[in-house]
Amino acid sequence: MKTFLQSAARTGLLGAMLALASVARGADFDPAGRPGYSAQTPNVHGVVRIHDSELTQHLVHLWQDGFLKLHPLVRYDEYTVPAWFNGLCADTADLAVAGRRVYLTELKGFESIYGYPPLEITFATGGFDQRKGNTPGVIIFVHKDNPLQQLTLDQLDGILGAERTGGWSGSKWTADAARGPEKNLRTWGQLGLTGEWADKPISIFGIDATLSGWSGLIQQVVFKGGDKWNPVIHEIVRGGTEVPADAQIVAGVAQDRYAIGFSFMRVVEQNPGVKPVALAREAGGPFVAPTEQSFAARSYPLVTSLYIYLNRPPGKPVPPRLKEFLAYILSREGQQAVAADGMYIPLSPEAAQAELKKLE
Predict the structure, then answer these.
(1) Hey, what long-range contacts does 319-323 have (CB within 8 A, 24 or more apart)?
(2) Which residue, 272, 296, 320, sits at the end of a domain?
């Protein structure tokens, strides 16, 4: 078992350096309208077993530090492992913490054991353009000469997706997401562009669609749970090349006037040959440009999220030690730790309150 003192000794100087390096990011955090943590269960005690990833480890340590000062009888059993979700399935972890949503295969594995889905808690928004490893949101971009300025999610589905019989809602297949080939958009003229653009076919550059959290986000939000892509997509696979896949995707669009792509802002903004487009959830708008402000407000449709999963049987209360720890994470103090960590964007007060209600 790792107590807090052991955890602090492990992070040591590195943890302090990371906290200091993120002071500027933490200074942007606005505590207004965010309730502070107030314990609902006094003298909470017990062991909180956590499996996390390398990208969330430092943040978890900040939460442990702050929570232990308020609940000194709590202890932690923490492991940072690639297979962070497996501990929840094997009942060796109470909380599984990571920077992506659980994959369908992982979800089905959990449900095959327990017969119900895990409880999902969003604890932060992915980063905008700060640095690597901060689970950035997905930016849709086109060649700089393209007159297109904005797209609805239905239009984006028509470009990136294909006809389908349905889609996944959690681990259940539903026909609600079905659509026919008449909604496919394969030329720029179908989007209202005229002149030289009207009859030009749309080419697509993006990350591989098989096991990517960002492609998965597009499938979830844009395809409404579907997983059929426009077959013309140039899938750039990460790893194995000197030029990073993200840079290859952006360069592909910069070199092809009739292309569209999806990648991350920190890569997109470095190439003057491309430009982002604004997105709207519905045909009537509003169209939201990808900015740090729209990411923080979660108004941009393709923001990413970071998650904590726990095993909560239907109709059963969350154990007090876990409920208090999660309430702390979603409180002003816990979200200040997100800001101080410097990797991710704290939840808006409204989003944090919505997540708190899941614990009732």
Answers:
(1) 319/46, 319/94, 320/41, 320/44, 320/46, 321/44, 321/45, 321/46, 321/47, 321/48, 321/74, 322/48, 322/94, 322/95, 323/40, 323/41, 323/359
(2) 296
User: Measured between alpha carbons, how far is 304 from 1 in angstroms, rounded to an integer?
Assistant: 32
Q: Give every CB contact of residue 295 below 8 A, 6+ residues apart in sequence.
A: 125, 126, 127, 128, 137, 303, 345
| Beta pairing, strands 167-169 & 172-174 | antiparallel
> Own/partner pairs for 170-178, CB < 8 Å, 24+ apart?
170/107, 170/117, 171/104, 171/107, 171/108, 171/111, 171/117, 174/225, 176/224, 176/225, 177/223, 177/224, 177/225, 177/226
Give the pLDDT confidence of 93-145 residue by residue, as tens digits: 999 998 888 988 999 999 999 999 999 999 999 999 866 668 899 999 999 99
133 within a domain of the structure (yes/no): no
Residue 324 belongs to some domain of the structure: yes
Considering the domain architecture, whether residues 37 and 14 belong to the same structural domain is answered as yes
Examine the domain organization and report whether 147 and 282 are in the same domain. yes
On whether residue 134 sits in a domain, the answer given is no
3-class SS at 231?
coil
Q: What range does the domain containing 234 cover?
A: 139-296
Based on the fold, state whether residues 158 and 278 are members of the same structural domain. yes
In this structure, are 121 and 148 located in the same domain? Answer: no
Domain shared by 182 and 119, yes or no:
no
CA dist., res. 350 & res. 360, Å (int): 16
- Phi and psi for 54 in degrees, rounded to 5? -60, -30
Question: Which helix or strand (DSSP H or E) is residue 259 part of?
Answer: strand 259-263
Q: Which of 296, 314, 332 corresponds to the end of one domain? A: 296
Q: Are residues 50 and 181 in the same domain?
A: no
pLDDT tens-digit map of 22-72 = 333 443 567 667 889 999 988 899 999 999 988 899 999 999 999 999 999
CA dist 144 → 158, 178, 204, 242, 246 (Å): 21, 33, 15, 26, 18
* CB count in 10 Å sphere of residue 67: 26
Instruction: Let me know: does 50 contact 95? Beta carbons within 8 Å.
Output: yes
